[in-house]
Amino acid sequence: MANTVHSQKQIFLNPFQLIDVNRESDEELQQHLWCGLVAFVLKYRKARKNAEFLERLLPWLHKIEIQQGLNYAKIVLKYAFSEMESDKEQLFIQKVEQYLSAELRGEVMTLAQQLEQRGIKSILLQQLQCKFGSLPAHYQQQLDQATSDQLMKWANAILQAQVLCEVFER
Questions:
Q1: Which of 20, 82, 99, 113 has the fewest other C-beta atoms within 10 Å?
Q2: What are residue 101's phi and psi, to 5 degrees?
């Protein structure tokens, strides 16, 4: 127990160094395969919509995939894609086709489907709230757990529904 406390003090009470990734050149970041990749994605987290970012990121991910396996590359890919604006999806998918392996391309397609489903849910929720007011918790839960097909069915049902339960009963 005494050794654990001593180790914790050593870790948490010693000075630490922060790195401003915005001051690091992309070339310097690329010298550090793993942590450089994460720093690169964080550096461009607001500007990740352009082709130049993708042309640097995706070959780097492919290199990590080849050298270290899929798991780390998938994590970084998910983070990069999570902030992607919907109007930039096509560029992202086009670049993925150009640079990544079939398995990572499959991961991107799964992410794209999730993003599409999230968009459908958001629009449907907005329509439901506009037409019927706030959603009771049990309907919100159904919406959160719905498949894409179910969401589309409800999106069509909202047009004829007079009361909220009619949307979810169809």
A1: 20
A2: -70, 165
